[in-house]
Design goal:
signal; Outer membrane protein; mainly alpha; membrane; SusD_RagB_dom; 497 residues; two-stranded antiparallel sheet; cell outer membrane
């Protein structure tokens, strides 16, 4: 698989500390020595991209698993995902949660280093357009990391310059509104200074339209209900701001709706017209820079049943029966994305699981080196987000909403059109369209449906009686215990944990 640009991890320069509040800073002397050419800045920005490598796994572990898409309770032995799925209160030390905090802050630190050096040494880059683009890429990525943090944890420390560990020990959590202020500022700069398209050598870098897509989603998320918690929803009415950005992407004609659902995710059709922003990987290198998300929700015994080596998915995270039963006959999304059991060594596994990203002809010898990108933004999502904005009162008509949903359904092989689509119906269609892509939990929270859907789902699905009663406090995760313990009283643990 050909990849375009490398996520260069500059280990000698960008060192980090895995068990402190924030990453160890590179010394000012080292920084001043390193940033001496345009290529140095390019490598510095590439290092900021590098922290996206775990982003897909995180969305599957923290959003997909948390949602009503999976019934990931214990099947023998304690798994890290069980507490996520089952709303356990004692998950502050969960490694998935800790990873979300540390990796996002590592990306923020790297972005801050680049932005700081652009101020101090940026005139080295004589091409002013390139200089602005690199600043815009760093700000797009910093906004991405902070948005992931605010949706996961709510109030978090706001850090906009490179700081030392001792300095980090004096920075408390900031209000969600302050985090959003930085996110909006960064993304607005990115929309104004990123390129509309990238040259072939720069595929995978952020563009003006990926920044607009993320900014639209930020406005929509801010417009979601507050649930009376310090979470991502602020109850604002910014649907009109969002739809203006979404329409700009649609009207650009840079992207298009693929007629084949499976072709969106084909290993031989990457960077297709559906892709607005994806996480790029390259295989066959040392250190390994391939992906791992393809097998994350797939049990190892399934690969063994196909004569392949185990990958790392361990045991099964079954697709919820309520989701399986929601599909209409002939829906190609179900047959493409869900594997209905298997037999290995004479033992039958009847439960279903997601295989959306698995091509059995592409299974690598190294389970950490899968040759597939992760689509973080795609055109169908932009269309359906537009429909969501219209249903919330933004400019548009019911006919437009219905047309978007019917376009999606037709591609899925469904011939019966729908009319007068409501918000719950739209979100149900999004569930089927984007299952296994890590969007579902945030969709439920943003739409305000999480309070009704999750309790009803637990009642219908939890045959093992393992899931705790849903509380709105569980919309966000606890601050990692390792961060709470670094300095007593610096952070306040999120309610409910």
């Amino acid at each position: 698989m050909k990849k375009i640009f490398y996520f260069i991890i500059l280990l000698a320069v960008f060192s980090s500390c895995s068990d402190e509040l924030n990453q160890l800073p590179i010394s000012s002397a080292t920084t001043e020595t390193f940033y001496k050419s345009t290529n140095d800045f390019l490598q510095g920005v590439n290092a900021v991209y590098a922290d996206l490598r775990a982003y897909p796994d995180r969305q599957l572990n923290l959003s997909e698993t948390r949602s009503d898409n999976l019934y990931a309770v214990s099947d023998g032995g304690v798994r890290d995902w069980e507490g996520i799925n089952s709303f356990h209160k004692t998950i502050a030390a969960n490694p998935y949660i800790t990873e979300a905090w540390l990796t996002n802050y590592n990306g923020i630190y790297r972005a801050n280093v680049v932005l700081d050096q652009l101020v101090k040494n940026g005139t080295i880059i004589t091409d002013v357009t390139l200089r602005k683009r690199l600043e815009a890429e760093a700000k797009f990525l910093r906004a991405t990391y902070y948005f992931d943090l605010v949706r996961s944890f709510g109030k978090v420390p706001l850090i906009i310059t490179p700081i030392s560990v001792s300095e980090a020990l004096s920075i408390p959590q900031s209000p969600v509104t302050d985090i959003y202020a930085l996110i909006l500022s960064d993304l607005q700069f990115a929309t104004e200074n990123l390129s509309e398209t990238n040259a072939a050598a720069d595929k995978g870098r952020a563009t003006k339209y990926s920044a607009k897509g993320l900014l639209a989603l930020v406005y929509m998320t801010r417009s979601g209900p507050t649930y009376n918690i310090d979470g991502p929803g602020l109850g604002l009415n910014e649907w009109s701001q969002a739809i203006t950005l979404l329409n700009s992407i649609i009207d650009s004609k840079k992207y298009s709706f693929l007629p084949s659902y499976s072709n969106i995710f084909s290993y031989t059709n990457e960077n297709n017209p559906e892709v607005i922003f994806d996480i790029q990987y390259i295989t066959g290198l040392s250190p390994v820079l391939g992906s791992t998300f393809a097998w994350l929700l797939v049990p190892d015994a399934y690969f063994q049943s196909k004569g392949k080596a185990i990958q790392g998915g361990l045991t099964i995270r079954p697709v919820a029966e309520t989701l399986i039963n929601s599909f209409e006959p002939g829906d190609v999304r179900k047959t493409f994305s869900i594997q209905s059991g298997y037999v290995y060594n004479g033992v039958s596994e009847p439960r279903s699981f997601f295989v959306k990203y698995v091509d059995l002809t592409k299974v690598p010898t190294n389970r950490l080196d899968w040759p597939i990108n992760f689509i973080a933004q795609r055109y169908t999502d932009i269309l359906m987000l537009k429909a969501e904005c219209i249903l919330h009162g933004a400019s548009g008509t019911q006919a437009e909403v219905d047309a978007i949903v019917n376009q999606v359904r037709t591609r899925a092989g469904l011939t019966t059109p729908v009319a007068n689509v409501t918000l719950p119906q739209l979100m149900a269609e999004r569930q089927k369209e984007f299952m296994g892509e890590g969007l579902r939990w945030n969709d439920l929270v943003r739409s305000g449906l999480v309070e009704t859907i999750m309790p009803d789902w637990i009642t219908a699905e939890d045959i093992q009686k393992q899931i705790q009663p849903f509380q709105t406090n569980y919309i966000i995760y606890p601050i990692p215990q390792s961060e709470i313990d670094v300095k007593g009283g610096l952070y306040t643990q999120n309610a409910g944990y």
